[in-house]
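Q: Could you predict the 3D structure of Laccase?
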Amino acid sequence: MKPSILTLLAAAAGSHGLSIPAFDLQPRQSCDNTATSRSCWGDYSIDTNYYDETPDTGNTVEYWLSVEEGLCSPDGYQRTCMTFNGTVPGPTIFADWGDNLIIHVTNNMTVNGTAIHWHGLRQLNSTLHDGVPGVSQCPIAPGESFTYSFRVTQYGSTWYHSHFSLQYAEGLFGALTLNGPATADYDEDLGTLFLQDWSHIEAFTRWDSARQGPPPTLETGLINGTNTWTCATAGDANCVGSGAKFETVFEAGKKYRLRLINVAVEGVFQFSIDGHSLTVIGTDLVPIVPYTADSVQITIGQRYDVIVEASADAGDYWLRAGWVSACATNSNPDGMTGIVRYDSSSTADPTSTSNVTASTTCYDEPLASLVPHLALDVTNIPTITTEDLSFKVDTYFKWTVNTTSLLLDWANPTMLQVVSGEDVFPTDYNVVAVQPAGSAAEWAVLVIQDQAGLGLSHPIHLHGHDFWVLAQTTGVFNGSVDSFNTANPPRRDVATLPGNGYLALAFQLDNPGAWLCHCHIAWHASQGLSLEFVESQADIILADADQTVLNDTCSAWSTWDGTAVWPQDDSGI
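A: Sure. Here are the predicted structure tokens for Laccase:
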């Protein structure tokens, strides 16, 4: 892995105000963030309204990422992968709340474009850097580079990944850790734990069958990019036997922070550690009032920050990424495990057992548990946009939102049309225009109703915003707001649309740009389950330098695309 390089410069930005109800927050006091004062952050704290206020650190953190193709064997079974700087997962990017991040991405692949999305980041006033081909930019052509630059206005745990077709399923993702305050104290941050399903056959190879019918069954899963695999076929040359279980060591009495991220193609996990409880302190990039649970259910794209106290008897314990079979199939549903040891010299397999009741549904954690620490109500609900989810079959199975299946032209992204003055977009782009029209319309409210009749749940991710979860239930939305919870409802950027039900979301119209809203099941995104919001188009302003980058990237892509071996054969995302 090539080393990351950090430099120091300066940056600043602001954001739109929110309606804040009365709640018990403490006056600002300057204090250090330590094991016994995690709520502190210098002159800021866990009580700071981070939508309105961001520290001015005066720091710029700079990284270089090389997108490459190569062989990998994360579970001992060798296959072709896509990597950042030669590793799966890619290197962790660290920054502090208020820093400016600059990431230089070079596409060193030979037959694929790419674009890198910084999952969950608001990209306040930096829509061009959201990293979605066909929306915010043209793909980065082989041999070309793109520099992403944005202010860190949030803190917590997230990830970066390719948003070009199925590339993140091939290994093209990494952790993005944004340091800031927390709602509970802990002694040590153990960093990110990636939970994922894993295929021994390239996702692009499996796309041919996935697009025609039911999704394929993947072979296994990984925890932080590693697991073991027992080959069923003697003499299989790809079975190189270098896999290992993820392991970590606890010291009795200490409290550890874990940053759980689901980066699966289609799987939902029920995370637990035998003999230990979890204190949940964050959902996506939103600090919450801590609650305790034996397990946490996490769908694709979601993040949960949890604290685990090393209070069990000394020994070895299974750490479990429990596969929720109600949501997808897998050939190794019980084998996605790691190990927590209290003695670093131990090499024994744990004999611990789980007392967790296995989940039989594809739901998120209960909404009542996900109470944001910073209490913000939804006020003045405007006209509700209702989108019906269904499907159609023509050349292949396609998901539709309001009868349209997303199909983007990589060479003509939405932002290129915006800066060219276009305000009527191609039907296949599935654009919904939103803009504030006075105080009563400072919110956009979206209701997605599952009309497909297949009973499948969908993790819905919105770019450019946190959203407030107003309702999430089975049944048919009747058009009334009576079912909406508007009093400090859960906020996040990924929530599950229940099968045969509806999901109601609200977000503030405070970030002009082009923002994708899509299912994060990789097959479904490729099959067009998406729409995009063009927000406050008249207020989208690109600096001259950004316009030059947009034009140059598209020019390089168009030149290369004329000689491309593989044509676009999915939605583009």
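Q: Anything worth pointing out?
A: Confidence is low (pLDDT under 50) at residues 1-25.
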